[in-house]
Write a structure and sequence with these properties.
The protein has about 190 residues and is of the alpha+beta class. It has a domain of about 100 residues: Alpha-Beta Plaits (2-Layer Sandwich). About 45% of the residues lie in helices and about 15% in strands. It has a five-stranded antiparallel beta sheet with strand order 2-3-1-4-5. A hairpin with a 4-residue loop joins strand 2 and strand 3. It starts with 11 loop residues before the first helix and ends with a helix. The relative contact order is 0.10. Keywords: Chaperone, Endoplasmic reticulum, Signal, Wnt signaling pathway. It is found in: Endoplasmic reticulum.
Length: about 190
Amino acid sequence: PAKKKDIRDYNDADMARLLEQWEKDDDIEEGDLPEHKRPPAPIDFSKIDPGKPESVLKLTKKGKTLMMFVTVSGNPTEKETEEITSLWQGSLFNANYDVQRFIVGSNRAIFMLRDGGYAWEIKDFLISQERCADVTLEGQVYPGKGGEENEKMKNKTKPEKAKKKKDADKKSNSIKEDNRATKQREDL
């Protein structure tokens, strides 16, 4: 028989033991469990279209956190990327999509979705935007409306730029290979 201790005399260890006893028989709801401990949602195979592999991914990602990478077209600064992706996030929020946005480069952002089942609808919205170069979702790269302009510009290389590039290549080849600091600065 444990000695009864006055509650005012409890220390941190006593409080921790009391909390463990209290939660031992407490049932935790599935929604309160962390995502990795939740049981996977049952997949309804009647909704799967064999002609569309995306339909399988939609159903398997439903209810799970998913991230997609978005590239902004042109040559934006990090602030411009922040503003453009903020507009996209606001539009998605107004359409009742829970999306968090993280800027990871001068022209890249991560869109994190709480429910991956909506990822393909969000991807369709993003690739239809004027400044979206591409969206990467589950390892698949989807070209955006803004990416087409970049491809056109790459194909129309001006002769002056090509000449400058050849001159730069000759210059970098003339630098000694063992001088690493100079070579690295030249590459930057």
